Amino acid sequence: MYLSLPLQFASTRSMSVVVFTCDGSAPPIPYTVSVPKQGRCRDLIQALSNACSLRNEERLLIAEIRNHRIHLILEDPVLQLSTIKDDDHLAVYRLPRLEKRASYVQFVHRREDLDLGNNSSSTSWKPYGVPLLAQISRNETVTGSDIHEMARKMLVPMFRNHVAQHSAVQSSLSTRTQSYHTDSSKFQLQLIDDSNTVIEQTDYAIRVPQSSVATVIFVNWSKLDIKKLNTNHLEHLPEVFKYAPPAKRTRGEPLSLYACLDAFLREEPLVPEEMWYCPRCKEQRQASKKLDLWRLPEVLVIHLKRFSFSRSTKHKLETFVNFPIHDLDLTNYIANKIPQRQTYELYAVSNHYGSMASGHYTAYIKLLDENRWYNFDDSHVSAINEEEVKSGAAYVLFYRRVGEADGAASNGTQSCVKRSRRSSQR
């Protein structure tokens, strides 16, 4: 009896990330790329590789960031991109290719925070910004000096007075804190392991667990030194996709009702969680879903899906849809081919004004015996011109079949409308 049609169908999806280098060759750079909507993690990696001109000896590692730490490393190339939500935050790390499997070291930034509780002030360290990531070959011995060098390389491009010549960067040893120079300006780098022990620049080996979870090392920033950082690189990690209301279409380029129907009937692949069990080979198989129209009713109701939901956002699409008032021809959309043409005429529209939080419904109805359109707005009823029926507020469309059997269908619809009008009068 009715069809719920999508207003927008996109075969691609825009995804925004920030790419960090581990060799200090460039500051963090944001990228927005287009990937297949039903694509996999390897599609995102390929798009980013092209965008950042990745070299053959390099690779990209994608990580989801939560609470200023790496929450999950997305290493599976066949992971469905649909598992990455629009409001997730992704950091991508540009790493050298290793012949052996890698272990990771995650540098989590913390800034100095003054705690004024209990009538006394004390200094605490608050997680901050986006973590940096370095990798080492498994079974490789790593020293305190190695850890400091990893951090130094990645941090140099983020300093406000950084110059491109890496030869200008020097290091000097101190007892508890390692000092570096960037363009003659010192900064104090204090590295702390997860047991709250200071990591000094020594040749003593540091154990890095052989697992896919990154070892955490905290980088403590004093209020003085953090001012020397270009914190824009660390503070602003964009959402994968930031929703913005679509630009209003002009009447010269509207979205066609036929395009909405094409999107509804288009074949789409099913996600791995919805794999199909093949009775022939007795295995779960990747499958696709395809909807077809087999038979249409005398009265066809079309619902335009204007309300969109995600994990943390919900919004209404104000897209203007150009729908036929006369001669909606669905003949070519019927899978069960029949000789009669399947054409419809609009006789009513339900409109929605407002937002997700609050709104107002009105109706445009054509009284067939008068051949005239009326606007029903609560207790107010007024006549309108036919061209006013099309608007961006149209939510549900009501069509009646016309054509060879027009007489019977028209009489049935007229009697229904007349009964409704008598009931309304009562």
Automatic annotation (TrEMBL):
Pfam families for the chain: UCH
Stored CDD domains: Peptidase_C19R
Boundaries of every USP domain copy: 114-402
InterPro entries cross-referenced by the UniProt entry: Papain-like_cys_pep_sf, Peptidase_C19_UCH, Ub_carboxyl-term_hydrolase, USP, USP_CS
Region (Disordered), start-end ranges: 407-426
Gene3D superfamilies for the chain: Cysteine proteinases
GO molecular function list: cysteine-type deubiquitinase activity
One GO biological process term: protein deubiquitination
Family affiliation: Belongs to the peptidase C19 family.
Descriptive protein name: USP domain-containing protein
Lineage start: Eukaryota, Viridiplantae, Streptophyta, Embryophyta, Tracheophyta
